Every structure is written in structure tokens, then in C-alpha cells.
Amino acid sequence: MRPGARPFRRPSAVEARVQHGVERRNLRLPQGKYGVAVRNSRKFRWASQTVAACAVAIAWVILGYGLRSQPDPEAWSEFFEAGGRFAAFIGIYLPFYLLAPVLAVVVVLALVSTRDWLSGLLTTAAIGVALFEGWVAMIGGPLFQAQPHLMASLIWCVVADGVAIVALVGVWLTHTGEPTRAVNGVAVGNSRNLRRASQTVAACAVAIAWVILGYGLRSQPDPEGWGELEAGGRGAAGLFIYLPFYLLAPVLAVVVVLALVSTRDWLSGLLTTTTVGVGLFGCWVALIGGPLVQAQPDLPASLIWCVVADGVAFVALVGVWLTRTDKPTRAVNG
After folding, report:
1. Contacts of 299 (CB under 8 A, 6+ apart)
2. Mean pLDDT, 10 residues at a time, the chain of 334 residues
3. Taking a C-beta distance cutoff of 8 angstroms, is the pair 315, 209 a contact?
4. Domain-by-domain residue ranges, the chain?
5. In this structure, are residues 188 and 179 in contact, taking their beta carbons and an 8 Å threshold?
6. Element containing residue 332 per DSSP (H, E)
7. Which pLDDT score is estimated for 71?
8. How far apart are CA 125 and CA 120, in angstroms?
9. DSSP string, 108-149
10. So what's the pLDDT on residue 149?
């Protein structure tokens, strides 16, 4: 041992646990280019998540105001018989009251914590609010006349939900997951954040495209246009358009939820297949639904906006595939 050198001493168990805790805390912080902790990203993530949670709550409150505002007694008595009122309660009001406490729990958790899994849960809640808005718009045709404030409430609800989606993009961009590693071992954390943001945008765009298409198929029909369709034409429309739409809707919902809560490599292929399927189904409706376009006046505009939303999903999927984290293949000799 050199003169003046300190003898080697093995750290005690307490010192080892303290050092291990310090290393774990350092790993939780987002690392910069040279290992410097970027604390501002966590502050920005907290601010974006707070804005998104507040926007989701405001959207649900606005929708509830439209459903519970002052009704029109004449419209209720004219358009809603006993069966119509019961259907409105089962299809719209009961799901609204059942989902309200679940949404409240998600919003409160998102306001008090910034855990990584909460970003996926809050994104799912925002998409669920948007899908419920589309559901109300599709099946609540006579309800718009019975509730005069419902249409304006739906418009403002869509605006608030759009603000939530924009804020959630900031949440996903500052996601503090484990960084991917380059060939030379350099940590590249931004690629995973970009992948999460791109996949979230793609999943949201696919869901919005399907909701827009459903709105065109379930919007207020033209009685004269439907009267011109014979019994065979109505049966063909139900068998080749409406039935596949209802059968594919839960499958698409499962894919969207999986894409929002995980970034596994196989999900990028599944989401791409779903996006292509939505585009092909829109083309199928446009090709064989000629007489249906006259019976459903809002269907052409819905098809156009569906194509636009599906195009946004394709553009976002390019970012997903560019940041794909495939494991390198191994050579024969190791």
C-alpha cells in the first residue's frame, strides 16, 4: 500500500442500501445528453397532465349540462313515447351516471400523481369521453329537440376533449420510461417518448375516424330516401354495412385501448392493420353505399372527415415505425 493511501473498507449494509436508493432515485429522473437530470421535463409533464385532467372533467360536466338542462315539454311528449324515454334512459342517461364516478376517480388520481401508468389511464378516459360523445350524437337524434342545449353542449364538449388530447401529447412526450439504447450504448430517451406520442395520436385518430363514420351511418335519415330503397336494398345495407360496423367496433376499441396503454413492438403492426382496415371499410361504404348516400345525407361529409382522420393516423404511424425498438439479431457464432 502506498504511503498516505487510505485502506480499503467494505461498505456496511446500511451504506450499501443508502447508495442503492440514491442510484434508484437518479434513474427515475429523465437523463440529458451527458447524464444531467432534466427536472423541467417533469414539471412540464405535471402541468400537461393537470390541464388534460381538468379538460376531461370539464368536458364531462358540459355534456351533463346538456343532458340535464331545461327540456322542451312539447318535444318530449311528441317525439318520445314510453318506449322512447326508456331507450334514452338505458342508452344515454344510465351510462352517463355509471361512468361519472369512474371518470372522477381517474381525474383525481391524475391530479395528485404523475405515475407513468396514469398517462395511459387518462388518455383512455379522454378517448372514452369522445366515444361517448359520438354515441350520444349517433343515437340521440330526437333528443336534440327535446333537450335544446344538448347540441351546443356537445360542441363545447368536443372542444374541451380536444384540449385534453393536445395536453396529453405533452404528457407522452415527457414520459419517463426506460431509455432505449443505441448501438454504442448511448441512452436515447427521446425516441421512446416520440414513439409513445406518435402511437397515442395514431390510436386517437383511428378512434375518431370510426366515430365519424358511425355518425354518418346513424345520423338523421331522409325518410324519402329510405322510402325509395326497397326491402332488398335495406337488407343489403344492414348486412354489408351496418352489421360489419357493429361487429368491428369492439375489436377496434380493444386495439385502441391496448395502443394507449402499451408500446410493445407487435402493437405497432396491429395498429397499422387497424388503420388500414378503417380506410378499406370507408372505401367499401363509399363503393356499395350509393343509394345509402341519399338516405343518409350526412354520410358523404362523414366519409371525407373519416378519410382525413385516417390519414392523420397514417402520418403518426410513420413516427411509430421510425422509432421501433426491435432487438438486434444475433450472429451464428455469438
Report:
1. 216, 217, 219, 285, 289, 292, 293
2. 59 60 50 46 82 91 86 68 70 88 91 81 83 77 77 85 82 60 45 78 89 83 66 72 89 89 81 87 78 76 84 82 57 43
3. no
4. 40-176, 187-324
5. yes
6. none
7. 78
8. 9
9. HHHHH---HHHHHHHHHHHHHHHHHHHHHHHH-TTHHHHSTT
10. 83
Q: What is the C-alpha radius of gyration for the chain, rounded to an integer number of angstroms? A: 26
122, 49 contact by CB (below 8 A)? yes
Chain center to CA of 226: 34
Residue with cell 379522454: 126
Helix (H, G, I), strand (E, B) or coil at 10: coil
Q: At residue 272, what is the residue type?
A: T
Of the candidates 253, 252, 126, 260, the residue with the CA atom closest to the CA atom of residue 196: 260
Task: Determine the Cα–Cα distance for residues 129 and 151; give it in Å rounded to an integer.
Answer: 16
Q: Is the pTM of this model over 0.85?
A: no
311's grid cell: 390519414
How far is CA 176 from each of CA 28, 42, 167, rounded to the nearest angstrom? 7, 8, 16
Q: What angle do CA 100, 313, 54 make, to 5 degrees?
A: 30
CA distance 203 to 194: 14
CB proximity list for 267: less than 8 A, separation 6 or greater: 199, 258, 259
Angle in degrees, CA 307, 308, 312, rounded to 5: 115
Report the interhelical angle of 189-218 vs 150-173 (nearest 10°): 160
